[in-house]
Write a structure and sequence with these properties.
The chain has 154 residues and is mainly alpha-helical. The protein is built from 7 helices and no strands.
Amino acid sequence: MEETPIDPAAHRQLAVSLFNHVWKLIEKPERTREENDEMIHAAHASRWHWGLVGTPVNFARGEWQISRVYAVLARGEAALVHALRSLEICQAHGIGDFDLAYAYEALARAWATLGSAEETSRYLALARETGARIKEVDDKELLLKDLETIPRRE
């Protein structure tokens, strides 16, 4: 990867700031088309900055957030691509607990967006199974709350 003229501390700060900005946009009840575009670009930019200075956990979380953004925007194929990448990073680096559970959450959400009840159920079950082993109670509760927001089709 080509070096950039930004120091590592600045990359970290930008990655964190952009990640947090994306969350504000995700949580906004009504977004404009421009804000939707901003949300996509900011999520990718955060992940790019982490790619320069972060760890595999940061990479997995960045891919997860990008997947969430695309799911929120009902762009299932893109959500699935980034959810799979989050899972791949977790598996390649032995990342479990919270991050692995959320990789499965992203896959369940992406499949729900694509309309596959079978795949949604499969990944919801994996997210719950993995989530049951999350050590931090608050993290476990957050996951369970997020899983409840995934649309299900009978």
